[in-house]
Specification:
By secondary structure, the chain is an alpha+beta fold. It contains 11 helices and 14 strands. The chain has helices at residues 23-33, 40-59, 105-109, 150-162, 190-194, 206-216, 220-225, 228-236, 261-271, 273-283, 301-307, and strands at 3-9, 14-21, 64-71, 76-83, 88-95, 116-123, 133-138, 166-172, 177-184, 241-243, 247-248, 254-255, 285-289, 296-300. The strands form 3 sheets. Strands 1, 2, 8, 9, 10 and 11 form a 6-stranded antiparallel β-sheet that branches. It has a 6-stranded mixed β-sheet with strand order 7-6-3-4-5-12, covered by helices on one side. Strands 13-14 form a two-stranded antiparallel sheet. It binds zinc ion. Zinc ion binds at residues 257, 259, 290, 292-293, 295.
Length: 322
């Protein structure tokens, strides 16, 4: 079963999380098999995005969906992973051209240097007209060098937007999508006043640096094949780690789609009446498949008439005439 493990380093301003998506990840991939599935490098990228999404959703206190969205100019046009506050997640990618075996981030989404990664925070109680919060991180480093790992891109984001020193290790194959996050906790309150100022400055905390360095020694193979207990013991056996109750099942990460007929109708409205009427004339109906879960929604001419009738133009409810 998919799991999220949270832990603290006793007495140190450092916390960590380890996520292993197993059934949720297999479920997500299986739904895509009908349309051919994903090439291996795309599967790895999407799995890393899903794992990272869970870790970021759990480390940023926010009541809404966290969406990682990579818009690419390579063979992958779009890759999206969305994680709700209750850890329900979904993810999808749009592949428009052949993907070379072993392709990494640059070859997948940044061949022309125009790829970008957006982190979108969409409040659950968002009012009509209100835009979600969006932070954009480039897919290149300080020297304009293209980044090859999603983890580096997201570490930049956490540092720049959340002021959080973060180390991420991510990996995915066709059975597991997993990630380890180590983060320096913002030091607050009275305890901080007496501390040497530099201690709390980004990149200068020795405890964080030591633990982050240990985390970075975790190999892809270990992350994908070892259970959480073994990973944490191997990496941090010299540290004092306090574990919390793991989250799994109904409170853990799991696949769930939020698509509905109403949402699809809204999307069709956005395309415009003319385009949809053309489709109906040609095929008799408009069929829309959800990119995330594969659900099919069919709209015939009558349905479309209803979709495009504004409420005020609908026949009034019968009224008694005096
Ligand atoms: Zn769906």
């Amino acid at each position: 079963m998919s799991e999220l493990h949270k832990f603290l380093f006793e007495g140190l301003p450092v916390r960590g999380m380890l996520v292993r998506l197993t059934d949720a990840w297999v479920d997500l991939l299986r739904r895509r098999e009908a349309s051919g599935g994903y090439p291996v490098p795309v599967r790895e990228l999407l799995g890393e995005m899903a794992a990272a999404g869970v870790l970021m959703q759990s480390s940023i206190k926010f009541n809404g969906a966290l969406v990682l969205q990579i818009s690419g100019d390579g063979p992958v046009r779009l890759a999206v992973a969305e994680v709700q506050p209750d850890l329900a997640l979904r993810a999808t990618a749009t592949v428009v051209a052949e993907v070379a075996a072993g392709a990494r981030l640059e070859a997948l989404v940044n061949t022309g240097g125009q790829g970008r990664c957006a982190i979108i925070l969409d409040p659950l109680d968002r009012q009509p007209g209100q835009q979600p919060y969006q932070g954009v991180v480039p897919l290149h480093g300080d020297q304009r060098e293209p980044l090859q790992r999603l983890s580096e891109v997201l570490e930049h984001y956490m540092l720049q937007s959340e002021q959080l020193d973060t180390r991420l290790v991510l990996a995915a194959d066709d059975r597991v999508a997993a990630g380890l996050l180590i983060q320096r906790m913002p030091v607050e309150g009275v305890g901080n006043l007496g501390a040497a100022r530099n201690e709390d400055e980004i990149g200068l905390n020795e405890d964080f640096n030591r633990i982050a360095h240990l985390a970075a020694t975790l190999t892809r193979e270990e992350l994908l094949t070892l259970d959480a207990d073994t990973v944490l013991r191997r990496l941090f056996w010299e540290e004092s780690v306090r574990r919390f109750e793991p989250q799994s099942g109904d409170t853990g990460p799991r696949f769930a789609c939020r698509c509905s007929r109403e949402r699809v109708a809204g999307m069709l409205q956005g395309l415009g009446r003319e385009e949809i009427d053309g489709l109906i004339a040609e095929r008799g109906s408009a069929e829309v498949a959800c990119e995330f879960c594969g659900a099919q929604y069919r709209f015939d001419a009558v349905d479309i008439g209803e979709v495009f009738t504004p409420p005020r133009d609908q026949p009034p409810a019968p009224m008694s005439v005096q």
